[in-house]
Automatic annotation (TrEMBL):
PROSITE patterns, sorted: HTH_LUXR_1 (PS00622), HTH_LUXR_2 (PS50043)
Domain HTH luxR-type, first and last residues per copy: 815-880
Gene3D superfamilies cross-referenced by the UniProt entry: Tetratricopeptide repeat domain (1.25.40.10), Winged helix-like DNA-binding domain superfamily/Winged helix DNA-binding domain (1.10.10.10)
The keyword Oxidoreductase is assigned to this record: no
Keyword annotations of the record: ATP-binding, Nucleotide-binding
Pfam families in UniProt: AAA_16 (PF13191), GerE (PF00196)
Protein name from the UniProt record: LuxR C-terminal-related transcriptional regulator
Length: 886
């Protein structure tokens, strides 16, 4: 191109076309630099939206380049004089374009006569109106000159430079280079080059999705990751703003409207906020999308939206929210959507504002947003009843973040209840919140008043909640349980399990509840509305399904940033892990559940994470650490809750393991006394009978142990398969060798299905001893070896020490240490993978997510020192067949 400008063939034009931030300016700068190195004289002008209204701004930059550039010394004096006159003419604001064009053409032609000349104009779409008209006349004459004109533009966006763009596109000397966002493969190469070879495919794909391949955004995001050590977004947001401010007033106004409207953004709504006298909004959105700045008309990352909002002057931001509120209210959008704008719009005189704020605050599903709306509404309500309702709702929501801090609201609300300013729903909420904090006397007084005055659906919901969580204050007979709210059905299914025992219908009901969209509203204490249904699956020994749904609830809790809700789901997860025999992970999870919220947040429900932690630590032999948690003071009201049973059960096993058998027996028997006192004859949350039987055996009282075990066996499957299997294992100790063998075989089968590796190891040990007594030492050795492998995978060091050498023949080859190091979950996943199942098929079989399967498989590969499924030991397939045969 440059050589063409210098020979007899005449000049030409180079158009660098493409969206913002994709390298047009960089390429133009490169062209100018190469031209200067080749001896070509260069004149450069850069356009910007801020200078669009300056007449002849582009021409002025070019002429100043002639007059004062680094090559000015080589310009003949007469040319310099003409350039000075052109500059003074433009400064004077003369509007004779033809005269200016002739003068400018003469100057440039004189310069090009000396040596080839390049004129480079960046972002021509932002040029002032007169300059492109003059340049378009120059473009028409290029073939007869030794000049090259280089322009950058985006042809997909309307601009005032249309005549120049048209002249450029039909010029016979046109050369066009189109730039575009980087493709995923190129982004991946750049990410690896910047971050190292350890960046996996998913991370490379994430970088492309987060930046749309826009080089400016990509560089900023890589810098964020490199400087902060994690993916932060400060540089990304500023890079987005830099691109945005170069786009011009239309896209800037549209994106500001998009940042304000968020999910309510539509093209008509954006047109309304951006102004009706500018180019079509849809075109601006398409241009931003083609540049990679947006994705399908939305922000790729929240950091971009926040940067745009922070960049807005406060008065403009308030005005946009006022206009958005009026627009959305007039369009009939839900009150919470409109209310989000009202709280940021300042005072508005519209008569509908106060009512929409109140309605929206109570209907808002996102707790932190609802808290903001409620606090704003509280400032403008004067009615005592409304203010009391608002404070009750604030108590509910704030308790999911910091219950201790939220407790300051209890005093005024109790006073409001005494003066009759609280309605029945508000009183029911207050009862729950008081019980959560262990204030049973005050809660009992309120509850008595409710029961004496009404039999409303609200009271029936409260009774269900009491039966499923705080049975000490529950009525012994609870009717109903099919309410319209997810939370009501969730607590009802748990109450049914506790009252009637395990059954396929109860499990099916629990899963149906968990499949429904879960409400963010808080009414049942420290947890999401699906938590009682999740505990139903746990108590029914459906640990695979419980693990799956626990992950779903945990993902939702983490995304909302509500520590108490998250901690309650983590406590349930720790219980699942303990029942599966994954004690190290259970201890870590329970410890996180205890420490995640502010101290004191658990209140009367602390027994669930505390009992799970003590039991997990006891099983792994960490008695010193467990003793610190056993000695922790808990509120007396803990033992009025189901969570208190978990505390007694965990503490009892710690006492049993540390040879304080009488104290352990007392804790186990107290579990039974509480359940009897609460008239809960269904599934027991903890298998207290078998635990107490073990303690009786340790004390040498076989009759008492047998009585409890027979009671448990007589309950059939009411308490789930684990409790039945434990009772069969203990019952076998009182039977003949042949009968013992049958009982233990049934126990092993039940525990295989239940997925409890620790109890399975204990049953295998006893079954091995039974085979040894019958003279089948080969089978006995194999069972003992497997029991030892399971105990090791569980981290159950005390039980592993108790096993000793057992019946294992040291002459037989042991399984590789890698297989022994697998946890129960990792082993199950690896066995299925070795058998040829895909990740999705494994997830369906084990009731977990594909992501969980992938994580377990990754850890198994690392422990087994393999890289592919094909390299998994064949012994895992044999292990799977052995499990299936049982």
């Amino acid at each position: 191109m440059l050589s063409a400008a210098g020979d007899a063939a005449g000049g030409g034009i180079l158009l660098l076309d493409g969206p913002w931030g994709c390298g047009r300016t960089t390429l133009l700068t490169h062209c100018v630099g190469r031209a200067a190195e080749s001896g070509v004289r260069t004149l450069v002008a850069a356009c910007s939206p801020a200078e669009r209204d300056v007449p002849f701004g582009v021409l002025t930059q070019l002429v100043q380049g002639v007059k004062a550039g680094p090559q000015a010394a080589s310009v003949p004096g007469d040319v310099t004089s003409v350039a000075q006159r052109v500059l003074s003419t433009t400064d004077a604001g003369e509007a004779d374009n033809d005269l200016l064009s002739r003068r400018l053409y003469g100057v440039l032609l004189e310069l090009a006569g000396q040596r080839p000349l390049m004129i480079a104009v960046d972002d021509i779409r932002h040029a002032d109106l007169p300059s492109p008209r003059c340049l378009s006349q120059l473009v028409r004459r290029l073939p007869a000159t030794r000049m090259v004109v280089v322009l950058t533009d985006d042809r997909n966006v309307r601009a005032c430079s249309l005549p120049l763009r048209a002249e450029a596109l039909r010029s016979p000397g046109l050369h066009r280079i189109t730039v575009a966002p980087l493709d995923p493969r190129t982004v991946g190469h750049l990410v690896v080059e910047q971050s190292g070879a350890g960046v996996d495919h998913d991370k490379r794909r994430w970088f492309h999705e987060a930046t749309g391949g826009n080089p400016v955004l990509l560089r900023a995001l890589l810098a964020d990751c490199e400087t902060a050590g994690e993916v932060l977004a400060q540089g990304y947001g500023q890079a987005f703003l830099g691109c945005l401010h170069r786009t011009g007033p239309t896209p800037l106004a549209v994106v500001r409207g998009l940042a304000v409207l968020t999910d309510a953004a539509t093209v008509p709504a954006l047109e309304h906020l951006a102004g009706a006298d500018i180019e079509p909004t849809g075109q601006a959105l398409a241009a931003m999308t083609s540049a990679g700045l947006l994705r399908d008309g939305t922000f790729r990352r929240s950091a971009a939206r926040l940067a745009v909002l922070d960049d807005l002057p406060a008065p403009m931001r308030e005005d946009l929210h006022r206009r958005a509120a009026r627009l959305l209210h007039g369009a009939g959008l839900p009150a919470p959507v409109v209310a989000r704008h009202l709280v940021r719009a300042g005072r508005m005189p519209d008569p509908w504002v106060d009512e929409v704020l109140l309605t929206g605050a109570f209907a808002e599903d996102e707790p932190r947003v609802a808290i903001e709306l409620l606090n704003h509404t509280l400032e403008h309500r004067t009615e005592a009843g409304d203010r009391a309702r608002i404070r009750v709702r604030l108590l509910e929501l704030e308790s999911r973040i910091d219950p201790v801090a939220a407790s300051v609201r209890l005093g005024p609300l109790l006073a409001a209840a005494g003066s009759g300013d609280l309605d029945v729903p508000a009183r029911a909420v207050l009862v729950r919140q008081l019980l959560w904090r262990g204030r049973t006397d005050e809660a009992g007084e309120l509850l008595s008043g409710l029961r004496g005055r009404t039999d409303s659906p609200v009271l029936r919901d409260l009774e269900l909640w009491l039966a499923a969580t705080f049975p000490a204050l529950s009525r012994k007979t609870v009717a109903g349980g099919t309410g319209v709210r997810v939370e009501t059905r969730s607590t009802a299914v748990l109450a049914e399990l506790l009252g009637r025992g395990c059954g396929a219908d109860v499990v099916a009901k629990a899963e149906r509840v968990l499949r429904e969209p879960l409400s963010g509203r808080c009414a049942s204490g420290p947890g999401p509305s699906g938590l009682p249904a999740l505990m139903t699956l746990i108590y029914a020994d459906r640990l695979g399904a419980a693990s799956f749904w626990c992950d779903q609830l945990l993902t939702r809790a983490e995304s909302r940033g509500l520590p108490v809700v998250q901690a309650s789901v983590l406590a349930a997860k720790a219980e699942i892990l303990t029942r599966k025999g994954e004690f190290d992970e259970a201890a870590t999870t329970a410890r996180t559940a205890l420490t995640l919220p502010a101290p004191g947040s658990w209140g009367a429900f602390v027994g669930l994470p505390l009992g799970g932690l003590v039991l997990a630590l006891t099983r792994t032999g960490r008695y010193e650490e467990a003793s610190r948690y056993v000695g922790r003071t808990v509120p007396p009201a803990v033992f009025d809750t189901l969570a208190g049973l978990h505390h007694l059960y965990g503490r009892g096993h710690f006492l049993l393991a540390t040879d304080r058998v009488q104290a352990a027996l007392a804790d186990f028997l107290r579990c039974g006394e509480l359940l009897t006192g609460w008239a809960l004859a269904g599934a027991a949350p903890v298998p207290w009978r078998t635990a107490a039987a073990e303690a009786w055996l340790r004390l040498g009282d076989r009759d008492q142990a047998r009585r409890l075990v027979l009671d448990q066996v007589a309950r059939g499957g009411a308490d789930g398969d684990r409790a039945r299997a434990q009772s069969l294992r203990l019952l076998a100790q009182t039977r003949s060798a042949k009968r013992r063998h049958q009982l233990l075989g049934e126990a092993v089968g039940l525990l295989e299905d239940a997925g409890d590796d620790f109890e399975l190891a204990r049953a295998l040990r006893d079954l091995g001893a039974s085979h040894h007594a019958l003279g089948d030492d080969r089978r006995a050795r194999r069972l003992a070896r497997r029991a030892r492998q399971l105990a090791k995978s569980c981290g159950a060091k005390p039980f592993l020490d108790e096993l000793g050498a057992g019946f294992d023949d040291p002459g037989e080859p042991a399984r590789p240490d890698g297989i022994r190091s697998l946890t129960g979950s990792e082993r199950r996943v690896a066995s299925l993978a070795a058998a040829g199942y895909t990740n999705r098929e494994i997830a369906l079989k084990l009731y977990v997510t594909p992501s969980t399967v992938e994580q377990h498989l990754t850890r198994a590969f690392r422990k087994l020192s393999v890289k592919r499924r094909e390299e998994l030991p064949g012994e895992l397939c044999a292990d799977l067949l052995l499990r299936g045969s049982r």
